[in-house]
Specification:
Length: 109
């Protein structure tokens, strides 16, 4: 199996195949079994990338500050959406590297 680089067409075809629920079942099972470890890796990656440092705390405070309830809700929704996108991107990177690790031949310990 080639390890990349992948063409846009290959990526599009692969993503399309993931829309089949049966195709995704094995990956979901693996993620469910590995969830605690994956959560630690994701948290570590987000922290080391500076996503949850002082800048993040400032964004949380800024989203909670507005007097106007509508503005506060909008700011909180924006913050949640941004955090979700970052978490997904880092999660995909972790998953991508996990797939590479699982493809490697076992080493003798």
């Amino acid at each position: 199996m080639p390890s990349g680089p992948y063409s846009d067409a290959q990526i599009d075809a692969a993503l399309e195949s993931l829309s089949d629920p049966e195709r995704l079942r094995n990956a979901q099972d693996l993620v469910e079994r590995a969830a605690p470890q994956l959560q630690r890796v994701l948290a570590s990656a987000l922290e080391s990338g500076g996503w949850f440092g002082p800048a993040h705390e400032e964004q949380v405070r800024a989203a909670a500050e507005p007097e106007d309830a509508g503005e506060r809700v909008r700011a909180l929704r924006t913050l949640i959406a941004e955090e979700t996108r970052v978490g997904m991107l880092v999660g995909v990177a972790v998953g991508y590297e996990l797939a590479h690790e699982l493809e490697r031949p076992p080493t003798e310990d």
